[in-house]
Design goal:
One of its GO terms (cellular component) is outer membrane-bounded periplasmic space. With about 325 residues, this protein is of the alpha/beta class. The protein folds into two domains: about 140 residues, Bacterial extracellular solute-binding protein, family 7 (D-Maltodextrin-Binding Protein, domain 2, 3-Layer(aba) Sandwich), CATH 3.40.190.170; about 140 residues, Bacterial extracellular solute-binding protein, family 7 (D-Maltodextrin-Binding Protein, domain 2, 3-Layer(aba) Sandwich), CATH 3.40.190. The protein is about 45% helix and about 15% strand. The chain has a six-stranded mixed sheet with strand order 7-6-8-5-9-11, with helices on both faces. Strand 1, helix 2 and strand 2 form a beta-alpha-beta unit. The chain is globular and about 60 Å long. The chain binds (2S)-2-hydroxybutanedioic acid (LMR).
């Protein structure tokens, strides 16, 4: 009896002395950062820079483990792992949060943002900042937006006009907007985790895809896609997220330092993303394995006109105010 009383008292003591971030007093907080792309991409660089800066500045207090290329968790289970605190940082693309918030679908609307600069402006303004908090009720805290880049269309046949895509099956991320975007041009879609894209294209399960240059090059997708059309039709960006219970359980002073590091890393990732994508575009072109198709303004306008009705289909889910705020960041005058 006495023995079991002691045992439960010891157990209670252990529970109160183990804080919400799970580390025992005196041992470092471990942050596992899992992602699905290669190291040599904007997100891959960001994860490694975060690890480097944390270990330089918070040595002994915080330890960061980076798992790229879906080696720890992949698209199918990473958000569930975050909810269970099995992983503490993720940076899924903004297309992958649909089950938690419909508002982030704004980023998938085709031809909404003219370029990455416009995306940047939207993310910095108040609507964009508010969206970082749009998943709070699911205990997901948005810490920052990280850029990758504008998406290009690749396929087994040349795509110059929207009708060229009719009947092809495109791999998409798990997003209703992207499904609707391809339906607009008569194409089929298949939602597949990023880790399966190369094999699906190689085997012919799907015949096309949409990706920024850095994802195409780092996964060698151009080796299995003979044509890439430079459409810049949408953006692929990320939200750096953590589990709110874990994040707010980190002692205040440490958390403030981590947030300052995140700001620094975000600045670096977002500054270099476009250059990294341009360098990968040049590498793809130099490889000679794929033909790059560029569109003149009239041809690009035809793609925009074909896909644009998707905005209206999703207006109620996303919110007219969010779409309007996003559209307002484009500098070029549109008709
Ligand atoms: C994709 O699934 O195509 C992207 O979200 C992968 C990534 O993280 O860039």
């Amino acid at each position: 009896m006495l023995k079991s009383l002691f045992a439960s008292a010891a157990c209670a003591l252990l529970l109160v002395s183990t804080s919400a971030h799970g580390a025992q007093p005196g041992s470092p907080i471990v942050i596992k950062f899992s992602h699905v792309v290669a190291d040599d991409t904007p997100k891959g660089h960001g994860a490694l820079l975060f690890k480097q800066l944390v270990e330089e500045r918070l040595e002994g207090q915080v330890q960061v483990e980076v798992y790229p290329n879906s080696t720890l968790y992949g698209d199918a289970n990473e958000l569930e792992a975050l909810a269970n605190n099995q992983v503490q940082l993720l940076a899924p693309s903004l297309a992958k949060f649909e089950q938690y918030t419909k508002q982030l679908q704004v980023f998938d609307l085709p031809f909404l943002f003219d370029d990455l600069e416009a995306v940047n402006r939207f993310q910095k303004r108040s609507k964009g900042r508010q969206l970082l908090r749009s998943m709070e009720k699911h205990d997901i805290v948005g810490l920052a937006y990280w850029h990758n880049g504008m998406k290009q269309l690749s396929a087994t046949r040349p795509l110059r006009v929207p009708a060229d895509a009719a009947g092809l099956n495109f791999r998409i991320q798990p997003s209703g907007v992207l499904e609707a975007q391809f339906a607009q041009i008569g194409a089929k879609t298949q939602k597949l985790p990023f880790a399966e894209v190369f094999n699906a294209l190689k085997s012919g399960t799907v015949q096309g895809a949409e990706n920024p240059w850095s994802n195409i090059y780092s996964k060698q997708l151009h080796q299995v896609q003979p044509y890439i059309t430079e459409t810049n039709h949408g953006v692929l960006d990320y939200m750096l997220v953590s589990n709110a219970k874990f994040w707010y359980g980190i002692p205040h002073r440490t958390r403030v330092e981590l947030e300052a590091i995140i700001d620094e890393v975000t600045y670096a990732v977002n500054r270099e993303a476009e250059a990294l994508n341009n360098a990968d575009r040049a590498r793809i072109q130099a490889s000679g394995s794929t033909q790059l198709i560029t569109l003149n303004p009239a041809e690009r306008e035809a793609w925009r006109a074909a896909m644009r009705p998707v905005w209206q289909q999703f207006e109620d889910q996303i919110g007219k105010d969010v779409i309007k705020a996003a559209e307002a960041v484009n500098r070029k005058q549109r008709q």
